[in-house]
Amino acid sequence: MHEVLRRSAGHVLVADVDTPVADAPTTHHLGRVLRLRDGAVVTVTDGAGRWRTCRWADGLQPDGDVIAEPRPAELTVAVAPPKGDRLDWLVQKVTEVGVTRLVLLVAARSVVRWDGDRADRQLDRLRRIAGEAAAQSRRVWLPELCGPVPAAELLASTAVAEPDGRPVGAGDRSIAIGPEGGWSPSELALASDRVSLGANVLRVETAAVVAATLMVAAS
Questions:
Q1: What domains can you pick out in the chain, each with its CATH number?
Q2: Average pLDDT over residues 21-35
Q3: At 174, which helix (H) or strand (E)?
Q4: pLDDT one-digit tens code per residue, 53-89
Q5: Peptide bond preceding 143 in cis form (omega within 30 of 0)
Q6: Please, are residues 62 and 54 in contact by the beta-carbon 8 Å criterion?
Q7: Residue 98 near residue 216 (C-beta atoms within 8 A)
């Protein structure tokens, strides 16, 4: 990570880094929550790899060239969503860890199923959570969030997390986490490979974070 990103007083998403404008929530966060003084260094990004420094003065004043960072290597976590706010926590944490793609799955034993407008609303909400987590962790590339998709469409090209799997290695770029009831026999038969996330039984959201962490560490 660039030292300026790490050291900036704040890092925010904007629509355009060439002419950055802080919306009302961002202005409130920088001015009232962080209580930034005039002249504080703030970094801004469009979430697609472009970023720059600004100075805070009741708004964002550009103060540096636009930098374009290359797209990071793709790391995917696919997961059958857990119930309640556990999914919010999952999205936040895998974004902070560094996944580039999060796919929501519909498995045979899924306890959470979304359709139509509800799925669209939930995805919009989760993308906002991912955006906030990306800003907190100084990311300049937002993760892609997509789904829900039937697990069968993905498993042939994705390793599934199972206790009898092999250790996660440098070549692993995609891991699928099953629902609370586990994968069905037919789903396991479809999987391209199996990887282990450790000896203990993990909750869905914990397994997703462990999978993300192991892939990042091995990449």
A1: 3-68 (2.40.240.20), 76-218 (3.40.1280.10)
A2: 89
A3: strand 174-177
A4: 999 997 899 998 999 999 999 999 999 999 889 999 9
A5: no
A6: yes
A7: yes
Q: What is the DSSP letter of 109?
A: T
Instruction: Give the list of residues 6+ apart from residue 34 with CB closer than 8 angstroms, or none.
Output: 9, 10
pLDDT at 119 (0 to 100):
82
| Element containing residue 43 per DSSP (H, E) | strand 41-45
- Cβ burial of 115 (10 Å; 0-12, 13-18, 19+) is exposed
Question: Between helices 86-97 and 116-136, what is the axis angle to 10°?
Answer: 40
Q: How far apart are CA 179 and CA 136, in angstroms?
A: 28
Q: How far apart are CA 155 and CA 203, in angstroms?
A: 20
- For residues 166 and 194, give the distance between their C-alpha atoms in angstroms, rounded to a whole number: 6
| 3-state percent helix, strand, coil for the chain, nearest multiple of 5 | 35, 25, 40
- What's the whole-number average pLDDT of the chain? 94
The pLDDT tens digits of the residues spanning 158-194 come to: 999 999 999 999 999 999 999 999 999 999 999 989 9
Q: Is the pTM of this model over 0.85?
A: yes
